[in-house]
Design a protein that fits this description.
heterodimer; A: 5-stranded antiparallel β-sheet; 5-stranded antiparallel β-sheet; 46% helix; 22% strand; B: alpha/beta; 5-stranded parallel β-sheet; 6 helices; 5 strands; 13% strand
């Protein structure tokens, strides 16, 4: 090492001669010291310089400084420190130098740039001191200059990567927190563009159906230019190529290119252009993000890396925006739908508190959202029903089973209406209940209709039973009737047959008078047969025919019958019809049938030799008009009285009647909505009555 | 003649009938069989009860002896034949009296009711005089002949299975 030649350690080895003069010794010592200094100055690995404190001219430089600046020693000695300093640092450095030179400061340290001989920048650390003479006057400055370019470059790189990281973080957080990422994309991409020192950026979206790019945002250029790309096929532009192939396209050295795909960007003076596809989670292309630089022909790997990272962030944000937009749209659709339906509807969270109601709910309940919050819905329930509702609801919340119940809810008018309440759970992918969607459907009318239906069904069933019973009764009656009538017809038939045989015998045996008598009997039997058939027909008609009711002047009807019926004309009979008989609600034909029977009976059943007397009168009681037919006949025994209106119940020998007449009277009166009855005693006459509603 | 003997020993049939023609045909048939004296006839249920109870005119048992059998129409005025049958079966003296229902009814209900109420026989009314003769001959042979049941109480219990349509 040269250092071994340095004074200090070897100093004690120097032999001093006495015959050398003092001056010579001094000179020698000075020279020695100078040599030592020079040696040290020259061999230092760091740059060293001595400078004139006034002018800043370099007085002395070492080899290291020559290497550092790229100048020769002679070239350096012709320059001042100001000349060496980078123009941007020159003034601040000179100010420090001046302060030192004036003695204000003993020295200074500074990091700054030198301009090397080749024009490149050299970062240096300068440590300068002022040297004074014995009188304290500034003699010169001395400085140690260290090359710190690589350290500075490393620092700058670090700073840049820190900036890059910060930019990315800012970008990401801005994209993620923005309520509308679209709104921040342009600003963020411009930040990135500036950071990358790029002239332009373009952001296109891909319309997959049309296979075209659509302009979304740009920077450094008018959107009009970006829109030029919209008209192009995917393969006809750089961005289209990136979108079509879902791959990065980097185009450099564009200045000399003739590629038609880069025509648009070349027209903007772009020399380097990189386009990254915006990719979704399944690598589907959402669009592109591209940056173009006009100040350089290539991009560094770092530049491209940053572009890719930003592109990925933008893609994520766009996806989120799309998802959110779809959600918002579906939410808007849902609310629109929920508000338009006639049902009340609501959302409840997983623990059963209701978080949202549709418009109908508020319209119906008249409540405010504040009143309905959480478990506020309880207030519109019937307190009597609420515990049951809560129990069911909580059990459904626990089990996740759908809820369904008919519940009365109080409306704004304070009245309760019935609602079919349904709630279904909405689950996440893992099957956990996220929330519940509920509806209340007004079923008051349905319930009412259901009740009316049940009631009318009950009534109908009762009516059917009643009708069936009366029909069965009628059928039985008709069966009985038809059986008995045919049975009763056998008697005259049998008589006719028997008498015919006897007549034959009498004629054969020569007793013509006897034969004549039996022929007479045959005629009587035939007459009876005719009566039976006539009565039977009348009865079946009375059962079958409609009897429309209307006001009937029954007095007039009776008087007409008395005057015109031959059987009532017998000179010996007396029929009196009271003058003032009110009108009744009845059927004229039916009434005629009744009274012809009653009057006929009254005239028929009279003791021999007695003049029949019949009186017809009317009697108003309890809203009924009672028409009496009173006779002076043989009367009815107590035993017969209860059965007198029964079919074929006869009070005397069959010769006198068919046993149908009174049954017919009762049937017809019943069908006119009235009643019949009789008061009688054997031998004391009979008093039959017919009760009908008086005509108004 | 045996039948005459029957009549003489007061083996009487009481015929309850309101149809005049039927009464005529039955009495003619009895006459033809020569046992007209065995026949007594009444017009309705009331008269039948009176006859059996021996009230009013019927107190004279010489003229109106108690019958060995009652021939009973069903479709009687005022008191129905079944009422009469019921009355006989409930009567302390006549509860064992044989009763033959004689009717133009062919209804199963009537037949069943007759059996339920204790009639001994159910005979439908015929249509020809010859058939009336058959009915009377069978009646006399079964209920009045010496070989047949001769006394009330020996005719089989009321409602027994000898209720047949001859």
């Amino acid at each position: 090492m040269t250092v071994t030649r340095l004074p200090g350690a070897a100093g004690g080895a120097v032999v001093l001669h006495s015959d050398v003069s003092e001056r010579k010794r001094e000179e020698q010592a000075l020279r020695q010291s100078e040599d030592q200094f020079r040696a040290m100055f020259n061999i230092a690995s760091v740059g060293k310089a001595q400078t004139d404190p006034v002018t800043g001219r370099l007085l002395r430089v070492n080899a290291a400084l020559c290497r550092l600046t790229g100048y020769t020693e002679a070239e350096l000695l012709a320059r001042s420190v100001r000349d060496l300093t980078h123009p941007e640092d020159r003034e601040s450095d000179w100010a420090s130098f001046a302060r030192m030179a004036s003695g204000e400061a003993p020295g200074y340290e500074n990091e700054m740039r030198y301009l090397a001989a080749d024009g490149s920048i050299v970062w240096v650390h300068v440590s300068a001191n002022l040297i004074r003479d014995e009188a304290g006057k500034p003699l010169r400055t001395t400085a140690i200059i260290q090359d710190i370019t690589s350290r500075h470059k490393a620092q700058a790189a670090l700073q840049r990567s820190r900036d890059r990281l910060e930019l990315l973080t800012r970008t990401m957080s801005a994209l993620l927190t923005a309520s509308d990422p679209q709104a921040v994309i342009e600003a963020l991409c411009n930040d990135v563009r500036r950071f990358l020192d790029c002239a332009v950026f373009f952001n296109f979206l891909l319309d997959p159906a049309k296979r075209r790019l659509r302009y979304n945002a740009c920077g450094g250029v008018a959107p009009r230019v970006a829109r030029l790309v919209e008209g192009l096929e995917l393969g006809a532009s750089l961005c289209g190529t990136a979108a079509g192939g879902a791959c990065r396209v980097v185009a450099e050295h564009l200045a000399g290119s003739a590629d038609p795909r880069s025509a648009v960007v070349r027209s903007l003076g772009i020399r380097a252009y990189a386009c990254h596809p915006l990719l979704g989670p399944e690598n589907q292309v959402l669009g592109t993000l591209s940056f173009g630089a006009s100040n350089r022909d290539t991009f560094s790997a770092e530049d491209l890396e940053l572009m890719k990272a930003v592109t990925d962030h933008v893609a994520v944000a766009m996806l989120r925006r799309r998802t959110e937009q779809a959600l918002r749209e579906s939410e808007v659709q849902f609310r629109g739908l929920a508000d338009s339906i006639p049902n009340l509807a609501w959302w409840a969270n997983a623990d059963g508190a209701i978080t949202w109601y549709n418009r109908r709910w508020y319209e119906y309940t008249g409540a405010t959202p504040g009143q309905m919050e959480g478990w506020g819905w309880e207030s519109v329930h019937d307190p009597g029903m609420l515990p049951g509702v809560l129990e069911r609801w909580k059990s459904c919340l626990a089990s996740g089973e759908p809820f369904e119940m008919e519940i009365p809810l109080r409306g704004a008018d304070g009245k309760f209406r019935w609602f079919l309440t349904r709630a279904v759970p909405v689950r996440d992918g893992a099957g956990n209940v996220l929330r519940w969607f509920g509806t209340n459907t007004d079923i008051s009318e349905i319930r009412e209709a259901r009740m009316v239906l049940a009631r009318s069904k009950e009534q109908l069933e009762g009516l059917v039973l009643e009708r069936t019973a009366s029909l069965r009764e009628l059928v039985e009656e008709m069966e009985h009737f038809s059986y008995t009538i045919t049975h009763d017809m056998r008697a005259p038939l049998r008589a006719m047959q028997g008498f015919a045989e006897i007549t034959g015998e009498a004629l054969v045996e020569g007793r013509p008078e006897e034969a004549e008598e039996f022929l007479r009997r045959i005629k009587v039997a035939a007459g009876r047969m005719d009566c039976l058939i006539t009565d039977a027909l009348s009865y079946s008609q009375a059962v079958r025919n409609e009897l429309p009711l209307g006001p009937v002047d029954v007095g007039k009807l009776l008087r007409g019958m008395v005057d015109t019926y031959p059987e009532f004309q017998a000179a010996k009979a007396r029929i009196m019809v009271e003058r003032e008989i009110p009108w009744v609600m009845g059927n004229e034909a039916g009434l005629t049938q009744c009274f012809s029977n009653l009057l006929g009976n009254a005239l028929k059943f009279v003791e021999a030799g007695r003049t029949p007397e019949v009186r017809v009168r009317a009697d108003l009681r309890d809203g009924w008009l009672r028409l009496w037919v009173e006779d002076n006949g043989i009367g009815i025994s107590a035993m017969m009285l209860p059965r007198v209106f029964d079919m074929f119940a006869r009070g005397s020998s069959s010769a006198a009647g068919t046993g149908i007449g009174l049954a017919l009277v009762r049937k017809v009166v019943n069908r006119m909505g009235g009643r019949v009855g009789v008061e009688s005693e054997s031998g004391r006459g009979s008093r039959f009555w017919v009760e009908l509603k008086p005509a108004r | 003649m045996a039948l005459l003997a029957v009549a003489e020993s007061k083996l009487i049939v009481l015929y309850v009938e309101d149809e005049e023609s039927d009464r005529l045909f039955v009495s003619r048939a009895f006459a033809k069989e020569g046992c007209e004296p065995c026949l007594r006839m009444v017009n309705d249920g009331r008269a039948a009860m009176d006859y059996l109870s021996g009230v009013a005119d019927y107190a004279d048992r010489e003229r109106f002896p108690l019958p060995r059998v009652v021939l009973l129409d069903l479709n009687l005025p005022e008191i129905h034949g079944f009422e009469v049958l019921k009355w006989i079966r409930e009567h302390p003296l006549h509860s064992e009296l044989p009763v033959v229902i004689f009717t133009s009814s062919t209804r199963d209900e009537d037949r069943a009711r007759a059996q339920l109420l204790g009639a001994n026989q159910f005979v439908p009314k015929p249509n020809t005089l010859a058939a009336f003769g058959d009915v009377v001959r069978n009646l006399v042979a079964r209920w009045l002949s010496a070989g047949g049941p001769t006394a009330p109480g020996s005719t089989g219990s009321p409602g027994s299975s000898n209720l047949v349509a001859d």
